[in-house]
Amino acid sequence: MREFFTSLKSVIILSVIFALVLIGFNFYDIAYDKTYERSYYSSDVENLDLELININTASEEKLCTISYITADIAQNIVDYRQAHGDFKTIEDIQNVKGIGEKTFNNIRSMITVN
User: Fold this and answer.
1) How far is Cα 50 from Cα 75, in angstroms, rounded to an integer?
2) Does residue 57 sit in the same domain as residue 29?
């Protein structure tokens, strides 16, 4: 019987140590600053060479380089321009078939009318 209690005592001690180790990892995870890897400076963003695509002058092929714009939507943009003239604001692109609010919000930072 004494041997049983000795092995049970060992199992309990090892379980407590294991639990404390897991708790320690959890505290490390909470305290670890996860924003460090994702930090950036505004000067880094300003130095990015982002080319805005002019939706008034871009070809169908150029429009297809915009994320979320398929060949059909690009053709719709060109057709809309020919029928209605230049877009006055980038928001006007929502009048094109296939471009709703969700698509517009995804592409707004990639397009211009200037």
Assistant:
1) 24
2) no
